[in-house]
Amino acid sequence: MVRKDSFTSLSSLTYPLIIIQRPRTPSSSSSSSLVMFLSLLLILILLLLPPCHSTTVCNQDDHDSLLLFFSCLSSSSPLNWGPSTDCCLWEGVDCDATADGRVTSLSLPSRDLNGTLAPSVANLTSLTHLNLSHNRLYGSLPVRFFSSLRSLQVLDLSYNRLDGEIPSLDTNNLIPIKIVDLSSNHFYGELSQSNSFLQTAWNLTRLNVSNNSFAGQIPSNICNMSSGSTTLLDFSNNDFSGNLTPGFGECSKLEIFRAGFNNLSGMIPDDLYKATSLVHFSLPVNHLSGQISYAVVNLTSLKVLELYSNQLGGRIPRDIGKLSKLEQLLLHINSLTGPLPPSLMNCTNLVKLNLRVNFLAGNLSDSDFSTLRNLSTLDLGNNKFTGTFPTSLYSCTSLVAVRLASNQIEGQILPDILALRSLSFLSISANNFTNITGAIRILMGCKSLTTLILSNNTMSEGILDDGNTLDSTGFQNLQVLALGRCKLSGQVPSWLANISSLQVIDLSYNQIRGSIPGWLDNLSSLFYLDLSNNLLSGEFPLKLTGLQTLTSQEVIKQLERSYLELPVFVMPTEATNLQYNQLSSLPPAIYLGNNNLSGNIPVQIGQLKFLHVLDLSDNRFSGNIPDELSNLANLEKLDLSGNLLSGEIPTSLKGLHFLSSFSVANNDLQGPIPSGGQFDTFPSSSFTGNHWLCGQVLQRSCSSSPGTNHSSAPHKSTNIKLVVGLVIGICFGTGLFIAVLALWILSKRRIIPGGDTDNTELDTISINSGFPPEGDKDASLVVLFPSNTNEIKDLTISELLKATDNFNQANIVGCGGFGLVYKATLGDGSKLAVKKLSGDLGLMEREFRAEQMRNEGKQEEIFDPLLRGKGFDDEMLQILDVACTCVSQNPFKRPTIKEVVDWLKNVGSHRNENKVQQIY
User: Fold this and answer.
1) pLDDT by residue (tens digit) across 471-496?
2) Where is the protein found, in the record's own terms (predicted)?
3) Within 10 Å of residue 567's Cβ, how many Cβ atoms?
4) Is residue 545 part of a domain?
5) Distance between the two ends of the chain, CA-based, in angstroms?
6) Is residue 90 in a domain?
7) pLDDT confidence of 131, banded at 50, 70, 90?
8) pTM to 2 decimal places
């Protein structure tokens, strides 16, 4: 049906009408009528349609404000905004449908916009949606931003470089904003202020301010203002501090709460556990303390619980199994105690379980993991679990990564582990596993295995190296193999040559002999090799200088850069470790320290231009330091200490601008120490033990000719003539003193007939063994000799220290064949001779110090400051031990001058025992 006014409109228009007449035929008359009818119908429809263009015209004020906004920006792909066109037609701009034509939406995400946010944006007072995320905006928000944009409902400025404080409101009127995303910027200031826009955001549903620099307390009254409609709160990665205050429990619809990576302290408020809609609860890397409340089991919708890296103690809630939807439980790096609660196995949806670095205990083989069929990642490392490898884990066929390292687990790896067909990462280091041969034969059947870490187990066996060890398909995906500190003997196993995917090999701290095999250069992906602290001999293999990953940038680019299922840790010392979540982040390194390698360092070593760490310390390398080392432009650590290197330090090494650790100590180097570049940052300990080296760092002038004594050298420098003279003087002086003392004692014995030794002031007795009596587990490295030789008096460490005045050197009365002899005066006036046995003097001192700290509760120095020598106490004691050997009662045990010099050159070498890194 057509309206009347449509016909009126039609009659007022004039259209040209062309009529083509054809001769009518009977066959075409009906079809012609149909065509005519359809044509008229089409004309009527077109006339009735509204105009094709919009009647909305952009508001002029908004038009001008947008042009001012645009003038502060630049972009690699310019916007199609022109001053002569309607702004409602511009890219990213939407207007309302009213005659006012006000701009209601400005959305330009990921447009590579670079510049500031112009104040004119605040003039768009009808704006409801503003999305400028993922650009390069910088500067602060306009002062009147929230006060003017009172219609704003959605604000997304995430992933920019905006900074400054969030503008406050100048009124208390409520604002309708629903979604706020300011994440990944540089905003700072506090959000809990009374004039913050959050205080009037009555309709807020999602707030994300993560990855900024906000400080102060986290505002907990948000839910009071938002009528409980909030579903997401993300405060993570900021500088928030203080306690979490109650209030979040009012968020009845809250599903995601993140506040990790801040400086929060105190206990988790029980109020939070009232937010029973929580699905994701995340508070990692803070300073939270107390226990995990049993009220956590009320969060029955929870899928992710992240509380790692805090100071939480106590036990895991025994009813944790009520969280049946839980998929990720991450409680690592806390102080949790007790066993695994049996109800944990009711969390059948668990995918990730990480409880590493706690104080959890109990027999792990008693836990039934078989119900966790979806478990993909299990990390129970660094706890106190006992028992054997839990056989129930073999039923968790979805397992990809398992770490049980640093526990007290024993036994062997069983063939049942082959049921874990997806297993890619396995670390069982620092336990008591045995049968390395059997483990290797079994684990090569795990076709998906990429990381195998068996380090620091007491296996004490040979490395199997026959032709049948590795089949053609075994370990073909293996990238990391760590067998350090397993007391393995034999040679570097030849079957490693068949694993072309190997990138990291750690065989350190074993008893491997023979030479370094040349076939290592066939491992095209190898970039990390640690063979340190073994018994390897021979020369540095030339083929090792051809490792493709260390010589070719193209090969490095081809290496897979996927993330590890669990992080790999590298331990530089016993007290610290470095964490690597990506294998390619490991520094390319060659560790060959503390072996018996000899010969010259080949000049071809300069080909390893992508090497970051080179450690050849404590070997027998000789010759000059090759100048070609300066080609290793990426080198960060170079350790050549403890060898027989001669000549000068190449000045070209100054060009190694990334070199942060350098040592050539204890060699036979000479000449000036290079200055400038990184060499100005190295301590004197990097050069000590080289008598003919000179330079400002050693306070030894280079103006004198070699062999001249340098009076300006400090008392700790290794001036051999001065030290040898001092030692010889001590030896003869001590010998003379002993002789006089012996004559005096004999004269006393002659004065007192009958040999009444009870009245003798002091009597020393020689012994032929430096070991404590067998069966005495608490025997000290100190032997007591009372005046009455028929009885031994038991003394505590504190009594012994008091009797010898903390082993004051004034009480040293002589040297025996195995150590220093001190005079001790007890509280009752009786006298003792106390012999301090030689050996690992550093270890002995640490034991004494630890015992003293336990008894007295103080970290005080034990030895006289004069003997300690400003932190060089071990070295001073070793020098005195050399002096004692000089006056040994057996003349055949007394050293020659050459032996004395050699011993003195090795003084302090024990300081390098823990400098080599190890993967675990």
Assistant:
1) 667 898 999 999 999 889 999 998 89
2) Cell membrane
3) 17
4) yes
5) 85
6) no
7) very high
8) 0.72
More confident residue, 555 or 109: 109
Find out whether 447 is annotated in a ligand binding site: no
Q: Which amino acid is at 468?
A: N
Q: What integer pLDDT is reported at residue 827 of this predicted model? A: 66
Write out the residue range of the structural domain in which residue 832 sits: 762-889
HEC assignment per residue over 549-596 = HHHCHHHHHHCCCCEEEEEEEEECCCCCCEEEEEHHHCCCEEECCCCE
State whether 689 and 799 are in the same domain: no
pLDDT value for 873: 45
Q: Each residue of 183-213: pLDDT tens digit?
A: 999 999 999 876 788 888 888 999 999 999 9
Higher pLDDT, 361 or 834: 361
| CA nearest to 255, candidates 229, 232, 227 | 232
End of a domain among 357, 379, 411?
A: 411
How many other CB atoms sit within 10 Å of the CB of residue 740? 10
For residue 291, give the amino acid letter: Q
- Are 705 and 814 members of one domain? no
Same domain, 714 and 801: no
- Among 520, 485, 542, 314, smallest CA distance to 916 is for 485
Q: What is the domain-level CATH number for residue 294?
A: 3.80.10.10
Mean pLDDT of 456-475: 71
- Condensed to tens digits (0 to 9), the pLDDT of residues 646-670 reads 999 999 999 999 999 999 999 999 9
Task: Give me the number of domains the chain comprises.
Answer: 3
**SS3 readout for 829-888:** CCEEEEEEECCCHHHHHHHHHHHHHHHHCCCCCCCCHHHHCCCCHHHHHHHHHHHHHHCC
d(C-alpha 46, C-alpha 919), whole Å: 79
Phi, psi of 668 (to 5 degrees): -120, 40
Q: Are residues 650 and 789 in the same domain?
A: no
Q: Regarding predicted confidence, which is higher, 482 or 847?
A: 482
Residue 468 CB contacts under 8 Å (≥ 6 apart), including other chains: none
Same domain, 767 and 687: no
In a domain, 529, yes or no: yes
Same domain assignment for residues 817 and 715: no
In this prediction, residue 920 carries a pLDDT of 75
Which residue is associated with the tokens 């007192």? 752
Which residue matches tokens 């509380």? 307
608 with 489, same domain: the answer is yes
Whether 797 and 879 share a structural domain = yes
Is residue 799 domain-resident? yes
